[in-house]
Specification:
Number of helices: 4
Mean pLDDT: 81
Strand content: under 5%
Radius of gyration: 23 Å
Low-confidence stretches: none
Shape: flat
Structural class: mainly alpha
Helix content: 40-55%
Order of helices and strands: HHHH
């Protein structure tokens, strides 16, 4: 005799849809893997620029990778705190849509590459045309 739980329907499907099933897990400092890699990439690019400049200024090649590592660590710590603060109370896809919108409005050439053509970028009043009276 087959026993059914409260959350299963007789056909074996779930009565509810788990809301956290497809979410990315939080890995470091409240960031998901994608958000962490965004912080690391941005801070690494800044670290390379600073590292090359500092290495040329002090004429020491070893300062370039050291500055890169320090900037990446600081970028992850600071970026994690800032992103966590900005994400609080917003939907999960907020960061990705925000970046997509920023790229689509500032660099229209990249719109197709980042999927910005799917965004609604209309400003003004919206109407549902339900308020008309005959």
């Amino acid at each position: 005799m087959k026993q059914h739980s409260d959350h299963l329907l007789p056909d074996g499907t779930l009565r509810f849809l788990p809301s956290r099933l497809n979410r990315q897990p939080v890995i470091v400092l409240g960031l998901t893997a994608d958000e962490m890699w965004i912080c690391v990439a941005v801070s690494a690019v800044i670290g390379v620029g600073l590292g090359v400049g500092i290495a040329m200024l002090f004429q020491s090649l070893a300062l370039a990778p050291t500055t890169l590592v320090v900037c990446t660590a600081l970028g992850l710590l600071v970026g994690g705190k800032l992103l966590r603060r900005h994400k609080r109370g917003k939907p999960e896809t907020w960061l990705y849509r925000h970046l997509q919108y920023a790229l689509a409005t500032r660099w229209p050439v990249l719109t197709a590459w980042v999927g910005g053509a799917d965004l609604v970028r209309r400003s003004g009043r919206w109407s549902t045309r339900r308020s008309r009276r005959p």
